[in-house]
Amino acid sequence: MHFPTLEDVVGNTPLVRLKRIAAGRNNTLLAKLEGNNPAGSVKDRPALSMIQQAEARGEIHPGDTLVEATSGNTGIALAMAAAIKGYRMTLIMPESASSERKQAMAAYGAKLITVSKDAGMEGARDLADTMIARGEGKALDQFANPDNPLAHFRTTGPELWRQTEGSITHFVSSMGTTGTIMGVSKYLKQQNPAVQIVGLQPEDGASIAGIRRWPEAYLPRIFDASRVDQTLDIGQQEAEVHMRRLAREEGILAGVSSGGSLAGALRIAEQVENAVIVFIVCDRGDRYLSTGLYAPEA
């Protein structure tokens, strides 16, 4: 009798139809619940992929120290994957990350190093590069590692095609490392070039965990703009309002970037008819409770 290991149950997350938030014009709005992954986010997929592929190439071996800059979800996923496979994990992140994220990483046994809020993710990435150059660990580098989008090309994309029986017309995703949108776009466009890929970035001044507008020098090397048909700017309040709507109207407790994804999907729904619009719910909302974002509105 074969019993699965934790690695075996990453992916194959539910795709659910929204019932109370209407998309109008005979559109169907579907949410991909990535919070159902073992460590609670879409990042479980690339975290496992990057470690598995590096192992297969002989670049890393159990017992090695891995170093990665993260704003949260990738760090939690990597900490889980390192625990499964026997690696030491050092994670570098902005101090502004929610306490639940930091505690989750530590719970899996990872070592945390924080940089100032002002230094942000760019500062975390710079420090990771410096530590690796000093020989203090080996890099996975989610921002430049093709094994990041490969995970979504091999799993997320095929799941969406199968779950919608090929009827998907629009795919809406926040853009952070851009691994999700790059891998899913490549797969879906191979099945049907007419599928529209919609990427989300924050408005100037917005700070939405998991969605980034990178300075040119820090643009992820895995990103290929030709794979995104349309880019929408999402506001801070817009993302937070729709995050609360997901919880209160659909029973989906998710993070702020998922609220941004819903907002983007609803914008698309205003422009099209008879569409099947899929958006990514990146993670679970319980890792944001300490931020007060779910506090009753005055």
Automatic annotation (TrEMBL):
Name any one GO molecular function.
Answer: cysteine synthase activity
Its EC top class is transferase
Gene3D superfamilies, sorted: 3.40.50.1100
Could you confirm whether the keyword Amino-acid biosynthesis appears in this record?
A: yes
Required cofactor names: pyridoxal 5'-phosphate
Q: Does the keyword Transferase apply?
A: yes
EC number(s) on record? 2.5.1.47
InterPro entries linked to this entry: Cys_synth, Cys_Synth/Cystath_Beta-Synth, CysM, P-phosphate_BS, TrpB-like_PALP, TrpB-like_PALP_sf
Q: What metabolic or biological pathway is this protein involved in?
A: Amino-acid biosynthesis; L-cysteine biosynthesis; L-cysteine from L-serine: step 2/2
**Entries under Pfam families matching the protein:** PALP
| Catalytic activity entry | O-acetyl-L-serine + hydrogen sulfide = L-cysteine + acetate
Which keywords annotate this record? Amino-acid biosynthesis, Cysteine biosynthesis, Pyridoxal phosphate, Transferase
Residue ranges annotated for the Tryptophan synthase beta chain-like PALP domain, each copy included: 7-283
The family this protein is said to belong to = Belongs to the cysteine synthase/cystathionine beta-synthase family.
Identification of the protein by name? Cysteine synthase
Task: Name its species.
Answer: Franzmannia qiaohouensis
> Taxonomic lineage of this organism?
Bacteria, Pseudomonadati, Pseudomonadota, Gammaproteobacteria, Oceanospirillales
